[in-house]
Design goal:
Blueprint (H helix, E strand, L loop, with lengths): L11 E5 L9 E4 L1 H4 L2 H6 L2 E8 L27 E7 L7 H16 L15 E5 L6 H13 L7 H11 L13 H25 L3
Parallel strand pairs: 2-5, 3-4, 3-5
Antiparallel strand pairs: 1-2
Length: 207
C-alpha cells in the first residue's frame, strides 16, 4: 500500500448540530484545536473528551497551589476535561471502547452540583479529540451517533461516513480513518450496549 497523502482540515469540525435530547453540538478535532481555548470558547465548547493515550492537556489556568519540586499545579480548569486514552491501533482491550461510549454519554449528561468546588457548571458544546482528529475521535463520535440516533444512522458504517465527511477526511485516507481494528471494537461495543440497555429496560418493567 502506497503512503497515505495528508490533507489539510480544520482544527475542529462540527459533526452534528443540536443533538436531540441534549441541545448541544458535537465536534471532532485534533491536538491543535483541543489546545486552543479561545477557539473552543468561540465555538461554545465547554467540554473536551480526549481519547488519545499519547496526548495530554493542562487546562488549569490558576492552580490552587504553585507547582514545586515533583508536584504539578492543580485546580479548576477552564474546560471540563475528560480523558479516555486509547491506542490508535492494536493494543486496546475491547472494554475501553465501551468505556469511551459511556464516558461520552456521561460528559453530555452529567450535572454538576451547585457548590463552590464545582465552579464550571455551564453546559456547552462537546469536543471529542485525539492527536489528529482522524481515527480515535472519529470512531468514538460515530459510535455515539449510531447508538443515539439509530434511525438516522442505522449502521456504524453510516455514522462513520457521516463523521468522515463532516471532518473533511479525504476518501484516499478512509482506509485508516478510523483504523480498522477500532471500527471492529466499536462494532462489538454497539452489540454490548444493546445488551446492556435491553437488560436495563427489562429491570424497569414492573413484575
Amino acid at each position: 500500500m502506497k503512503p497515505t497523502a495528508r490533507y489539510d482540515r480544520p482544527p475542529i469540525s462540527p459533526v452534528y448540530e443540536n443533538l436531540p435530547g441534549y441541545g448541544v453540538d458535537l465536534y471532532v478535532g485534533g491536538r491543535e484545536g483541543a489546545s486552543d481555548v479561545p477557539l473552543l470558547r468561540a465555538n461554545g465548547i465547554s467540554t473536551v473528551l480526549n481519547c488519545a493515550v499519547n496526548l495530554d492537556f493542562n487546562y488549569v489556568a490558576t492552580p490552587d497551589e504553585v507547582s514545586h519540586d515533583s508536584r504539578v499545579g492543580y485546580g479548576p480548569a477552564l474546560i471540563r476535561y475528560y480523558k479516555l486514552g486509547i491506542v490508535d491501533g492494536p493494543g486496546n482491550p475491547d472494554t475501553m471502547m465501551l468505556a469511551g461510549y459511556y464516558q461520552l454519554r456521561g460528559a453530555l449528561e452529567q450535572v454538576m452540583p451547585e457548590k463552590a468546588s464545582y465552579p464550571l457548571r455551564e453546559r456547552g458544546n462537546v469536543l471529542v479529540n485525539c492527536r489528529a482528529g482522524r481515527s480515535r475521535s472519529v470512531v468514538l463520535a460515530a459510535l455515539f451517533l449510531h447508538l443515539h440516533l439509530p434511525t438516522e444512522f442505522p449502521t456504524l458504517a453510516a455514522a462513520i461516513d457521516h463523521v468522515r465527511v463532516r471532518r473533511d477526511l479525504h476518501p484516499d485516507e478512509w482506509h485508516e480513518t478510523p483504523k480498522p481494528m477500532l471500527i471492529a471494537a466499536a462494532e462489538r461495543t454497539a452489540h454490548w450496549v444493546g445488551l446492556v440497555e435491553a437488560a436495563r429496560a427489562k429491570e424497569e418493567i414492573p413484575a
